């Protein structure tokens, strides 16, 4: 494989707790129950789709403008929480593995639905490792649609068959496969039978 395309949340950094807290603030404001089980359904999907999941069962109907406002509020809460992130939020294992992959001549890219990708990469000092970034700012369809990975390959100048995706969510694995790429499952996705490879530790990518 010539290129590796990484999901961000849950693979390189772990921002789940910040997403949960920010969505919980929105849910509490609306008087809606929101727990870890519902939070798990938000993984790998866009902000607006996440909001629709949170609003399930809510008797009040929201206009498109009101939904946009709620999603914007959530993102503001989230970014405030992300201000606490530092380079220490990335493991030595992740940094050393990314460096080794680059030293071996592989191209590296991000394929994330998040619109905060560059903000996070700068906060944790990972930006310089990547040759391309495909994220929520340049796609119109979220995973499991393959667009985010197709764009990453396009930005890298590589054919999909030469790319391997590293994902922790089922929707991300489905997106990688739909893009015609090999997929490595890590975290929750390590047990997903649609992944081509499964790893427990990030440095297993070097094997």
Describe this structure in words.
This protein is an alpha/beta fold. 41% of the residues lie in helices and 11% in strands. It has a six-stranded parallel sheet with strand order 3-2-1-4-5-6.
Essential attributes:
6-stranded parallel beta sheet, 6 strands, 8 helices, 207 residues, alpha/beta, 41% helix
Please sum up the structure shown:
The chain has helices at residues 16-30, 36-40, 47-54, 64-82, 92-103, 117-123, 147-156, 170-178, and strands at 3-6, 107-111, 132-134, 163-167, 182-185, 197-198.
* Helix and strand pattern: EHHHHHEHEHEHEE
What composes the largest sheet? 6 strands, parallel
Structural class: alpha/beta
Unreliable segments (pLDDT under 50, ≥5 consecutive)? none
The level of helicity is 40-55%
Q: State the strand order across the main sheet.
A: 3-2-1-4-5-6
Helix segment tally: 8
Total strands: 6
Strand content: 5-15%
Shape: globular
Distance between the termini: 12 Å
| Mean pLDDT level | 94
Supply Rg. Answer: 17 Å
